[in-house]
Amino acid sequence: MSDTIIRAEGLGKAYRISHEVAPSHDRFSEMITDRARRLFGASKNTDPTVEKFWALRGVSFDIREGEVVGIIGRNGAGKSTLLKILSRITEPTEGRAEIRGRVASLLEVGTGFHPELTGRENIFLNGAILGMSRTEIRRKFDDIVSFADVEKFLDTPVKRYSSGMHARLAFAVASFVEPEILIVDEVLAVGDAEFQKRCLGRMSDIADSGRTVIFVSHNLNTVSQLCTNGILIQNGQIVAKDNINNCIKAYISSGERPGGGDVYEPHAVHLQTKSRIVFAEVSSKEELSRNHFPIGASITFKIKVRVGRGEGSLRLGIAITSRDGLRITTLFSNNDENTLGYFAQGDELAFTCGIGGASLAAGQYYIKLSLDEVTQKMPIDVIENALSFSVSTPSIEPFPKIQGAGLLHFQQNWRVTKIK
Amino acid sequence: MKEKTLILEPGRADKEYWRDLWRYRELFFVLAWRDISARYKQTVVGVLWAVLQPVLTMIVMTLVFSKLAGLPSEGAAPYAIMVYAAMLPWQFFANSLSASGNSLVGNARLISKIYFPRLVIPTASVITAFIDFLIAFVILLALMGIYNFWPSWRLLTLPVFTCIAFLAAIGPGLLLASLNVKYRDFRYVIPFIVQFGLYISPVGFSTSIVREKLGEALFMIYALNPMVGVIDGFRWAILGAEATVYWPGLAISLAAISLFLWLGITRFRRTEKTFADVI
For residue B145, what is the enclosing H or E element? Predict the structure, then answer.
């Protein structure tokens, strides 16, 4: 069976962006003065502060029934815009798409959860928001509860839930929606490792059940495990549509990531109302080559963040993970009080964090970045595999590379004496 | 099992918009239920609040307009009941207007993450105001008992006027809601309309006084305020033979209601597709 279930022809989406510090047209009074200014001379089209930005343009593809497609690309490449068009949240500016079948989109976990309502009530609320009928929810209720593992807290308001429980319940509800086409964006970026594993299992069950799934994630591992085919988007255009492994290869070889640099397509960051990590870099004065450091080098992370609406107090987290996924440490920006303060929308912050003292053993390391609003529980922005770097013993050492050295490297003072 | 093809195109007029709206009726009830249960959970005095607000306002207005200013009531109806008969639709109107006007911004996350006909949100938000209205209505019955004032068959027509009050609120409500998405300072406009409206609407005094003082011609302009017709209707239904309705005035109010409704719906429908982009 290879029926085309989604066909996109020349899809495009343009946003108007203004180049001022704060978005201006948010105030009615400003619109009035603006109109008045235009009335007295200034013509409409020459307004230099407003520019059209194509978040997506000329995007065409076919997706067949039962296909599991991973969409990859840098932040701001247009992935989310594409998902929003396909799930009817926003309208394309040009082109057209044909969709045959019921679509459910999970662009966020826990959309519409109400903190005052109990777990039980939120299951019904969230289910209905995701398009389930009441009888459908009732039928799946027990499965949802046992998957989320919240039996004891069903009648507790979710505001008293831990963030882990919250995420589990939200994902559970979402994963029991059964449309013909499922659109999923980054839902696995929440919860602990154990729960992520369960989510992944659930996702592959869904993928195996013959439904058409469109999946976006920064976690390339997850994408390659779940998806058969991939679409690589860069600067709002499709640069590859192939089987998933080829797409991932093309993605890795195309960009600076995971080496570092702009995390966001530089233009697209203006469209964001939430705070975003826009740039990430790791370096060392003693570096051997790019992102390649000798053992014991002091390493510096430089992360730039653009502050969003109403998010004045931010905390940046830098998590260092080993190749086999073991979390070695997480560096939080508020461990040093100086970096915590109040900021306005549009501000750009540079977080610099130098680490030393302990040193990593030879190996490959991966960096996950997360950004929290201090007063909220859920992260605002999370970038899996934002950076990677390797540590190795300097080649000048008299011994060949040591394998299996573990994770940490200590300064060692050996002395061997003959005692007998 | 397969539904028919959905086509996404710029500017495509959704011919199936209203059918879609019907398909999402379950979401409508769930959102309404969420607002109600969240509201009565958060405030211990939820019900009490719905009662206190109209009753206290009624007492103050009765004291000021009847005792101090010495204005006459409608026919022989007790002044308190006449005021309360106007407080009912006024509170319903004011609460519905602010609820629907702020509803889209309050549900911003929902709008930017899920598709559904956006009209569901402002209309569902009115339900909370309706529940308050029902609670306040029970007080009216109690008040009638106290004054030993018996309603006539006309009380049965009250649902019709309640519907009109709903339409009077939802029209400007939709207009404000869609403006609020783009221009956030409209949230300051809503409390102003509500406060100002209470002064210029015939809540504390009878419309016949206004007509006497203004004359017929000016009264027609006064009746452009949709609430003039609605309040007249409520008094006609509640006060029975004591109240008279000035039908041309009611017709003008109905015309104003229809105009606002048309404006609200068209503006809402036109901007609805961009909500997710600008909210």
Answer: helix B120-147
* A363 within 8 A of A328, measured Cβ to Cβ: no
Of B7, B27, B114, the CB nearest to A98: B7
| Residues comprising chain B, all counted | 279
Q: What is the pLDDT of residues B150-171, one digit of tens each?
A: 888 889 999 999 999 999 999 9
Q: Please tell me whether residue A269 adopts helix, strand or coil conformation.
A: helix
Question: Which residues contact residue B223 at a Cβ distance below 8 angstroms, ignoring those fewer than 6 apart?
Answer: B229, B246, B248, B249, B250, B252, B253, B256
Tell me, yes or no, if B10 comes closer than 8 A to chain A by beta carbon: yes
Q: Tokens 């390391």 belong to which residue?
A: A365
Question: Which amino acid appears at position A388 of this protein?
Answer: S
Model confidence pLDDT, tens digit, residues A236-275? 889 888 888 888 888 777 654 455 566 666 556 556 677 8
Structure tokens at A160: 């008293």
* Domain ranges (residues) in chain B: 25-278
Q: What sign does the CA torsion over A258, A263, A267, A271 have?
A: positive
Can you spell out the DSSP letters for A140-162? HHHHHHHHHT-GGGTTSBGGGS-
**A chain contacts of residue B2, beta-carbon cutoff 8 Å:** 100-101, 180
Phi/psi for B174 (5° steps) reads -65, -40
Give me the DSSP letters along B5-60. PEEE-TT---TTHHHHHHHTHHHHHHHHHHHHHHHHHH-TTHHHHHHHHHHHHHHH
pTM of the model: 0.74
Give the residues across from A389 on adjacent strands.
A365
Nearest to A130 by CA among B87, B115, B273, B93: B115
Q: Cβ(B233)–Cβ(B68) under 8 Å? A: no
A-chain CB neighbours of B38 within 8 Å are 114, 116-117
Count of Cβ atoms closer than 10 Å to residue A274 Cβ: 14
Of A243, A234, A192, A219, nearest to A69 by C-alpha is A243
Q: Tell me the two tokens of residue B185.
A: 């300072």
Tokens 């999402």, residue located: B24
Is ipTM over 0.85?
no
Measure in Å the smallest separation between the Cα of B178 and chain A Cα atoms: 12
Least CB-CB distance to B115: which of A87, A96, A112? A87
* Backbone torsions φ then ψ of A50, nearest 5 degrees: -110, 135
- Cα distance between residue A141 and residue A119, in whole Å: 11
Structure-block tokens of residue A138? 């009732």
Please give the Cα distance from B158 to A71 (Å, whole number). 57
User: In terms of CA atoms, which chain A residue is nearest residue B120?
Assistant: A129
Q: Find residue A383's DSSP bridge partners.
A: A369
- Residue B37 is nearest to which of A15, A117, A134, comparing CB atoms? A117
A384 exposure class (CB count in 10 Å sphere: 0-12, 13-18, 19+) = buried
What are the DSSP calls for B219-268, one per residue? HHHHTTSHHHHHHHHHHHHHHGGG----HHHHHHHHHHHHHHHHHHHHHH
**Buried b / exposed e across B146-177, counting CB within 10 Å, b at 16+?**
eeebebeebbeebeebbebbbbbbbbbbbbbb
Q: CB contact, 8 Å: B108 with chain A?
A: no
Residue with tokens 């059964």: A178
What's CA A232's distance to the chain center, in Å?
A: 16
